[in-house]
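Possible regression after last week's pipeline update?

I re-ran a chain I had predicted before the update to compare outputs. Posting the input and the new output here so someone can diff against the archived version. Not blocking, just want to make sure nothing changed silently.
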Amino acid sequence: MKFIAGLYRAFISTLMIGGFGIGALFIAFIVFNVIRLCVRDRHLRCNISRKFTLYSFKFYLKLGCLLKIFDIEIKGLEKIKNDKGVLYIANHPSLLDVVIMDSFVNNANCVVKASLKNNFFFSGVIYCNDYLLNSISPEMMIENCRKSLSYGDNIIIFPEGTRTVDFDHIKFRHGFASIALNCMCDIRPIVFKFDGVALRKGKLFYHTYHKILTYKIEVLDKIDINEFIKTNPGHERTALPRVLSNALQKTIQTKTEN
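New output (post-update):
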């Protein structure tokens, strides 16, 4: 039975990945082009396409759960109901993390790898959702984030920069902290506890043969950036990003181990 269950998961995972690619193409070339033709206002068009992305990802994940490929539990969703102009940061154990985040964060903007702009499947989604590319200078990134936050966007960043390699020693880059401190925006930490072989760094989707992909996700309390600055008066302004980054890194590392 275990062997048959493994073959089933590998087969369904192959179909799910294929379906994701086809769905991304359909959304990019059909749905988003219709939105582009019908809605002239760029900001409104972006909001509509992001909402469509949210529900598309939500459907995809629910289908995966129904087919027993994923098991996803999210704790604390009630906390984010009124979030606007908030920086969401999370650890990054698997390839599916951004899809999960985009399925429950309203009006989500994301910082994505610049290489994805040329990806045949995802370039249309990135363009229509007006996602931020990580190839620009730090100064330009901060300015673009400031504009996005001022519209009420919630920006998603994975501070590790890539999927987790060493789960015992999560390492955050400090860029997100510089954005938060320069834009004076609050931070919402998200903790991913992931149990699975597939979709980790260096692993492929068909490794679901080994086990179902189990996610336990916790939404933590929002960090008031003004309060953080007040409680760290002994540090120079230039040192605050490192202090903030290290504090959140420690918090999330601890949560993943409990």
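Follow-up from reviewer: compared with the archived run. The two ends are 32 Å apart (CA to CA). Marking as no regression found.
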